[in-house]
Amino acid sequence: MREPGRHLLLASLVLLVAAVWLDPPGSWLAEPDEPRYAEIPREMLATGDFVVPRLNGVPYFEKPPLLYWANAGAFTAFGETPFSSRLPTRLAGLGTTLLLLWGVRRMWGARPGLFAAVFFLMSPLAFTFSRLNLTDGILTFFFTGTLLAGYETLRAREDRRRAALALSALTGAFAAGAFLSKGLVGIVLPGGILLFWCLATRRARDLAVLLFGPALPVFFLVAAPWLWLAEQRNPGFLQFFFVHEHFQRFATPVSNRPGPIYYFVLVLVAGFLPGLAFFFRGLVPIRRDQREALFFVIWFAVVFLFFSLSHSKLSPYLFPAFPPAAALAARALGREGPSGRGWAIAAGSCALLPAAAAAIPGVRAATGAAGAWPIAAAGAASLLIGSAACWVARRRAETALGALALGWAGLYLALALIWPRMPLARDTHDLAVAAKSAAADSGAGVVSYRTYVQGFPWTLKSIVPLVDHTGELESWWLPEARRREIFWSREDFWTRWRSGQKLVVVMRTRDAGDFSGVIPAAKLIEERGKFRVVANFVGVGKRETGNRSRATNGSETAAVLRGQPDPESKRRSASRMEPQRRTQNAQPSPLTPVYSPESSSP
Description:
The structure is a single chain. The chain is mainly alpha-helical and 602 residues long. The chain contains 26 helices and ten strands. The chain has helices at residues 3-21, 33-47, 66-78, 82-108, 110-122, 124-129, 135-158, 163-182, 185-200, 208-211, 215-233, 237-251, 263-271, 276-282, 291-309, 322-336, 340-358, 361-369, 373-392, 397-418, 423-442, 455-460, 480-486, 490-499, 554-561, 597-600; strands spanning 54-55, 58-59, 445-449, 466-467, 487-488, 503-508, 523-528, 531-535, 543-544, 548-549. The strands form three sheets. The chain has a six-stranded mixed β-sheet, sandwiched between helices. The protein has a two-stranded antiparallel sheet with strand order 1-2. Strand 4, helix 23 and strand 5 (487-488) form a beta-alpha-beta unit. The longest helix is centred in the N-terminal third of the chain and has 27 residues, at 82-108. 49% of the residues are buried.
């Protein structure tokens, strides 16, 4: 490898990692998934119970607990912050990149290994899901570790090396991590991939080192204790976890996440855009004697086909297929050398991306509302310059790929800087802070009316009672007394509203009509997007810039209750300072119960 090209590639990889880790002030958690996966470990720490995950006080068994445990550790070390909640996912993204670099290097050499790492982290989907507080990042890390350790185990068994048993144990440990990240897909899919690869390369007997070696005992030693403890604490957990959360999600529309059969084709095109041309070239020709390439082809195909056939489809599900896609793209680039057509497709499609994004009205509106045009323009310019430099250097593969990756790194750095300005990052946090401030000032309780906004318990650091709504929360896990504390009927809510109990309520804008004509009248505190925060007592009102508040007048209240915007809100500044909060001597309201191990146990 030429030294200048190698240095450029390394520099681009470092900048891509920096873009993943950049977290400017105000980078609040994105509704709904990030606050959910931050709140559950917060409640684990509050209750001291690390067996039963809880969300808003309710046992939550949709996912295994590894991400929650990791986040709880990050909270203990660094505090309960958005950055801490994203730390395990970002470490997992970095770990997946390093595993891929190591694995491809072992198979094809240092040059393709570096290519694969850059292709992986340069892809938009890998950048996104290596940043966010989601289960898919740590699943992909352990998924990748399971397959690469399993591959090395089979190779060691074939070569009769003593390391085969140790590698088998490592495979079992990685598989346990994958299972504890997201359940059966973490072991069924890697197991199927290794089986199909052994059958395709006529080495099925080598599977004995995994099936009858240390892999299975290590797996059960790591993964089984949580399953046993959770079933003991919540009888019926195993049936719910395995049947409802796995088989029914795959085979039926129970999760309400439909998508056409070509859904993941679109995810692949958008999510792997910079390396797409090289990925397709890396798929062929594949022969039986090219076992390394066949390994990555089977890996990609099994993940892609499995989720394409599933009735439950979300873009993060395809993330475990991106390491093999990056490896195959690296294979094509390393095997065939410079290719004018491949670089033309890569540079051209990337150069067109800013124009395509700017042509979407929603993107233009969001960028303008955030006041982010200068940063967005700088990111777009970085990608355009990188694409042009990639085309100019197309005869030198390392330099061309490094230039393209630097262009994407510049775009990603711009996106990270823009994030705190976006409504998805701000709105829920600002609403919850306004509700928290009003409740602390008045001793009121915060309640959620006919909705559940994930970020409210996380920001308030307490349970939020839900009125006439359960959402994704499985209330049947709770005893009746605890269920009534968290889930209120509509009649109970209105009785409390009229009784004089002070309530701060978050609701959807479309439900504002329910508060029309009620006594006491609803006073608007804050409104953002689809949600509003109101209260049933005087002395609160919509907050303005500079932490000033004014009482809501009669015409404004009427407009709010009719579901119409406040006439004066158009004249207010779009950016509001966080309301000043008075927390001294504030006592928790019985309507916003604070956790203790005794009160939170099921």
